[in-house]
Amino acid sequence: MCLLVAARIEDMSNLNRVQSGIPEGGQFSESSKARPSIEDLGGFYDSFAEAGQPDLSTDSFDGPEVPLRHIASDSESLAGSNLPGKHPDNPNAINLPGYVHPQTRSAFFDAQWAFDSGEDRQAAAEHLKSRLPSLNDDERQKVLDRYLFAVNNSELGEDGEIIAQAVEDNDAKMGILNAAQAPFTPTGASTSANRYGYQSPAMYGNKYDRTMSTTEAAKAIRADIKEAAATGYLPSDLTYSVRKSSASALSIEVQGLTDDQIYAPVDDMEPAYVGRRQRPEAVELQARIDSISNSYRMDESDSMTDYFETNFYAFSRIEDEDSARFREGEKERLKANRLTRLGK
């Protein structure tokens, strides 16, 4: 029987079998499915049709030249005054004392690049003006000198400390940071390995108390936010709402910001991005709120296994203009319904 099978295999055709009903020939033939020719495409592509290795040099490519990305070494700074952040042309920016905006780091990079490209210190320090507007020219040059020394001498982390100190000095001169007042510093939370062996790390707030109820936690968070606003850690001209939304959840809302303060301009977003993206200042504001609330939380959850264990959830959000209009509309609607029930 084995010999019979072998004989049948030897007699089988090597041609691909086509099931009955499937069209053959013409556009369906195997020859029509061959790879298209790449000859006569020019430059780099012709090298694939020739014997040997392809020519990978850019000189053989006849297409349009791709411009190199501009690295600022003149007045067209990466941290120009048209970008979001705190500067004289943007007085509505969110005041967050001590916050180092990403574009502030870019401004120091611009200044370093300008100096390395041959500009003198005075001209290079002009790149810091948009992010440190309250410092005078001499102060900005001294900051740049310290920054360049730290960078060139590979002082790990010292360049970041210099930037942070410059921002703090600028904030103090702008009047949004009272250097004589002790700043509010949230205790935050720390993470450690999950005691149950789950993959997700556990989070323990530095003020976590297992005997504290959700109502007591809400009261403590309100007190911390009030202190943070009084000392400048949070903007004092905003409204903060902390309410108990369920037995084990808190809702924290920030009110009083415009859409221009919350969201980045449309032309500042990636072309493929759908929706609105928060400005870095708004992201930092929400992170500071979360840092305060997380200091009272414990979370040993592991979402990968649908295991959840926490003393309470804290959901923070920044109210935009649409949400503010809806809230005011709901307030008027409830007021009208109340008057209707009273017959007024």
Structure report:
The chain is mainly α and 344 residues long. It has two domains: 72-180, no CATH class; 189-341, no CATH class. The protein has ten helices and six strands. It has helices at residues 2-11, 46-49, 102-116, 121-125, 137-152, 158-174, 214-231, 259-262, 280-294, 321-341, and strands spanning 189-192, 202-205, 239-246, 249-255, 298-299, 313-318. The strands form two sheets. A three-stranded antiparallel sheet has the order 1-2-5, with no helix packed on it. A hairpin with a 2-residue loop joins strand 3 (239-246) and strand 4 (249-255). Helix 5 runs antiparallel to helix 6 (158-174). It is extended and about 80 Å long. The relative contact order is 0.09. Mean pLDDT is 78; it is low at 1-8, 66-78 and 80-84.
Gap from first CA to last CA: 101 Å
Structural domain count:
2
Strands of the biggest beta sheet: in what spatial order? 1-2-5
Q: How much beta, percentage-wise?
A: 5-15%
| Dominant shape | extended
Number of helices: 10
Q: Which stretches are low in confidence, meaning pLDDT under 50 for 5 or more residues running?
A: 1-8, 66-78, 80-84
Tell me the radius of gyration. Answer: 32 Å
Elements, N to C (H/E): HHHHHHEEHEEHHEEH
What is the fold's blueprint, element by element?
Layout: H1 2-11, H2 46-49, H3 102-116, H4 121-125, H5 137-152, H6 158-174, E1 189-192, E2 202-205, H7 214-231, E3 239-246, E4 249-255, H8 259-262, H9 280-294, E5 298-299, E6 313-318, H10 321-341
Parallel strand pairs: 4-6
Antiparallel strand pairs: 1-2, 2-5, 3-4
Helix pairs in contact: 5-6
